[in-house]
Every structure is written in C-alpha cells, then in structure tokens.
Request: fold
Amino acid sequence: MPRRPTSADVAREAGVSRATVSYVLNDTPHQSIPEVTRTRVRDAAARLGYAPSVAARVLRRGRSDVVLALLPDWPIGPSVGTMLTELSAALAADGLTLVAHPYDRAGRPAADIAGALGPACVVVLDALAEEQADALEAAGIALVQGLLSGPGDVERRVGRAQVEHLLERGAARLAYAWPADVRVTGFARERLAGVRAAAEEAGTGGVDVREVALDPAAAATAVAAWTSGRVGVCAYNDEVALAVLAGLRVHGARVPAGALVVGVDDVPAAALAVPALSTVAVDLGALAGHLADAVAAALGATRTGPTAAGELVRVVARATS
Amino acid sequence: MPRRPTSADVAREAGVSRATVSYVLNDTPHQSIPEVTRTRVRDAAARLGYAPSVAARVLRRGRSDVVLALLPDWPIGPSVGTMLTELSAALAADGLTLVAHPYDRAGRPAADIAGALGPACVVVLDALAEEQADALEAAGIALVQGLLSGPGDVERRVGRAQVEHLLERGAARLAYAWPADVRVTGFARERLAGVRAAAEEAGTGGVDVREVALDPAAAATAVAAWTSGRVGVCAYNDEVALAVLAGLRVHGARVPAGALVVGVDDVPAAALAVPALSTVAVDLGALAGHLADAVAAALGATRTGPTAAGELVRVVARATS
DNA sequence: CTGTTAGCGCTTTCAC
DNA sequence: GTGAAAGCGCTAACAG
Reply:
C-alpha cells in the first residue's frame, strides 16, 4: 500500500518547491505566483490525490479549527440535533468545524476526550465541573458553557412564556409537571424558576409541582389534583406534557376545559397528539447564533456571519390551551 | 499569557530528558524506570498543567485515534443519539474517540470536514456518494457505510418484523404509511422492501402504499381507505404512525378493531399515545456493536470489547395491534 | 517571483 | 536506566 502523498511529492511532481505548493494550495495572500504555476501545482496535487495532513498543519500553525460540542447526559432529541446543525453552519462561516461527542456513559472526563482531539474550543450544553473546566484552560482550550447560564437565560424565558400563555388563556391556578428523569434536573430547575417568577409577577398563588413519569398509569396518579378548575399545567417538555395528557385522560378530565397543558420543544408528536399539544418552541437558529458568538468571543475573533435577532422563545398554541 | 507547557518543560522541571518524560507518561512497556523518577515526572507534569499536543502525537505516530460519524440529512431523533452513545462506548474500549458531525446544510463535502479533522475512520449512517468515498480513500481514511447495506440488513428486518407481528394479530390485508420527508426515502425504501418480502412469503395480497404527512388533516385524507377491514398498517416510523392514528381518529375508525398500526423506533411519545402505539424497537446497543466491529475491521484491528448477540429487532406490542 | 530553511511537539531508535 | 537526536508533514520567515 503506497503511503499518502505529501506536499513534497506534489512539489516534485509539479517541479516547484514545497513552499510554492503551500502558497498555491492555501491561496496565501500577498504572493504573486503566475497562473501557470498555480495550475501546474493544482494539477499535480489532483493527480496524486494529495490531501494535506491536518496534524502537521495544526502543529505548525499552533491552533486548531475544530470546535467540540460535548453533548449532555440526557437523551438528545430533535431539538438538540437541529441546534447542532445550525451551530455547525454558523461556525463553518468562520472557518470552524463543529463536531459533537455523545455523552460517554463510561464517564470519560471532558478534558480527556478534548485531549484526544485537540479542539480550539469546547462547547458544553449544560455545565462542566470546575476541575474539568480548569483542565481545559490549562490545555489552552477555550470553553463556552451554554444554555443554562447562557445567552438571555433561555430556560427561564421558556418557563415565563408558558405561564404568560396559560394565564392569557384563562388558567385559574398554576401547576408544574416535573420530569422523572434526574439527568435533566438542572434544566428543570431553571424552567421552574422562570415559571415561579412569572407566577409571582402575575400575583397567582403558588405553583403545584408534581413529578410526572413517562407512563400513563403513573402519570394518572400524579395529575389527580389537576383534573378540573382550569389549572394551567406547565410541563417540563413535550414528552412530560404528553404524559400529563395521558394521565388526565385516565381520569376522564377535559382538556382544555378542565385543565390547560403546555409543553416545550415542539417535537413532531406534539402536533399529532389528540388533542394537539400546545408548546413553547425555542428558536434554535437564534440560539445557535448566540452560541457561535460566544465561541468567536472565546477564540478572540469576531463573527462574520449575521447574528439573528428576534424572540428566542415562541408559543405554539394548539388544542390543549 | 504563558504558552502551553511542552514535554521539554516537564523534562526540565523534573530534571530528566524528554525521552524519559515520554516513557513515563505513556507507560511505555519494556522500559525499566525507577518508581522515584516516574513520580518525579508525573509530579512535574501535574505542577505545570502539562497536556500533550494531539497534533504532534498524531503527526509522529502517523495515525489518529479519532472516528468521525457523519450524521445524515434527516432530523436525528433519540434513536440515533442513543446509538451514537453506545458506539462511542464500544469504540472507547478500543482506545478510539468517536465524534459526530451534524449534517451541514451548507453542503460541505464529507471529505472536506474529514480533512479538517484527520480521523482514522469515517462512519456514515446512510451512504456516501462514490466520489466522496474515493476522496476519503485517497486521504488514507477508512470508511464504514452503515445501516443501509449494513450488518444483517437491519432496515429490511424492521419491515419484516412489522408484517409478522401484524399478521399474528390477525391483520387481513397490509398497508404501508410512507413518510412525506424525502430525506428518508432511502431508509423507507429498504423498510418497505422488507415489508413486501414478508408479505409475499405469507401469501398476503399486495401492499397498499400511501404517503402520510405529519399533519392530522392531511393524514386523514391519506388513510381514508384504511378505516376498516382489519388492515394492518406498517408505518415508516413512530411519528408517521402517530399521524396515521390521528388520521384514523378523524374518520372515527376503531384501533385495533378496524385497523392495526405499528411504528418503528419506540420513541417516548409512542407509549404515551392514546391508544398506546405498538412499535418495532431496534437494539441500538447491538447495532452499535456491529458498527464498532466494522470500524475495527476497517482499521485492521480486532475488537477487544464483546460483540452483542441476540435479535437486532424486537416488537413492542401495545394497544394499536 | 521562487526556493531554502528552521522549527512546531512528540515518539523512538540507538548509544552511553 | 537515561539521554541525544532524527524526523513525522507542514508553514512562514528570509534569501536569492
């Protein structure tokens, strides 16, 4: 098996020096190389199937163009997927390549997997233990901690949006359907904080918080107190909301007459539920834009791509509210 | 800002040579270095916050330990997420680090993004254009094309499992709910092929294929012919199945008395639907194991981790069948 | 305008 | 047992 061609091979093939090859292939500015030479070099490269070595380039330049997203522990749904796609596109505009590392149940520390990759920056969706953050810093890797403490308090806004919508629709009192999955506790706490803040401002009474498991029977028990009286239920996300709906149905409760329900995420199943689920959708593109800004800032650069403005959070009103 | 410490710094700090540092930090075998020296080196490294440079290591060793998963065009749900986590764990056992690149709507070619990363191997979930595959090969990057042509024809087995289950439950004739999203056509084709093959073997008549959009009203139109007669509906996935259910409900059809429905994926919403959706679950762990085997083979290594045996595909019978 | 050259930080023979 | 030194493939000063 013939070893991969190097820039020296290309130089030999084209009858120029390695430097010229580098200049031509990188379109280095302020370098006046005649078009014929350029063509010769490019042809030679193509003929040999030359691909530059990332390792060598990174070593030489002293910086990588890779951004690593560390995915959280919890099951990633379509929202996270979409957000990553958007973020990838935003970063690509700045010449950065985004890759994601799925949560490692083996518990490989963040610094470890960053160490195997050598990214310029690490983006975490939830939050990183302090010692992990320090390890990254020591390795000269920028760190962006997202969402939770992130741009504009997205998670709290989500909670506020649920409450505002519910009250607008005539909810008499407020309840919160807390997720059974302990891995999302951090997010649930923020969203609930948003709910409580909005409830307080509106002068509503306290919020009745109950844990709702993703199982119709268990959910039925949990929602027993919400079957009537126009209680406005804020669910942690659409799945929990679907469970609330299933539970309410067991009791024969009427939605939205007796209880109103609103989820978060706008997963495909929300529109297909019966009755169709109202939900809070996050503008993933805008969120990704903010994250891209944070990455650029951490890297000491400025974004070239546009930063999306507008509301981050939007209520999709359907039949359950 | 002080520049990152190098192995030379550690050597100086510990009063040894760079070679010794390398030996100690890498636990190089067949090297008899006294424990005191080892401790001294490790302490020095810790004190300086030394982290080796991936780029330099990769350059020197001539191979990377990174495996890049190229995610498909379509919205990735929890199944893909779980599979990646499993695959990551399986590869980690072989000292490999998995990262994923989200689909880039900017259409950056696979070879491009691989070129920015320098992975040892690329795994694609769907399939790669031939010229892209060639470009990877030229760069000396191994390629594993997954799922579609992959291990044990998973997609076809999914279709077969749907049919077998439906017939067992007394379906009189078969129908297929085809997805409206063109991006998943490749997968839909395979699954439908499995359905047709199983139907033929069972001597059932032809399969009534209809495209079902993810919208109750549109779905209602599509499923008009399936409202009675114990038609067994194989849906492309759980979301399409949910749409079928929504459509059937518009017609007031009884499930499973008039029509039986089975989805694919076992998303959380499936268990919470009313009636609860029957579905085909793929053993993501086993699938990841197969993929890990393929990666190891492509890299000329042999897996150390165990290869999960057992059925790849399993029917989760709930209320709709 | 193009070529020569000096490293980037690391691993790994080979000599002491 | 430990160290000196060569070089992986590339880029960017600096000569020519």
Observations:
- Chain A touches chain B through 68 residues (CB under 8 Å).
- The mean pLDDT of chain A is 90.
- Residues 16-20, 23, 31-34, 37, 56, 58-62 of chain A lie near DNA strand C (CB under 10 Å from a C1').
- Chain A has three domains: 7-52, 66-149+287-305, 154-282.
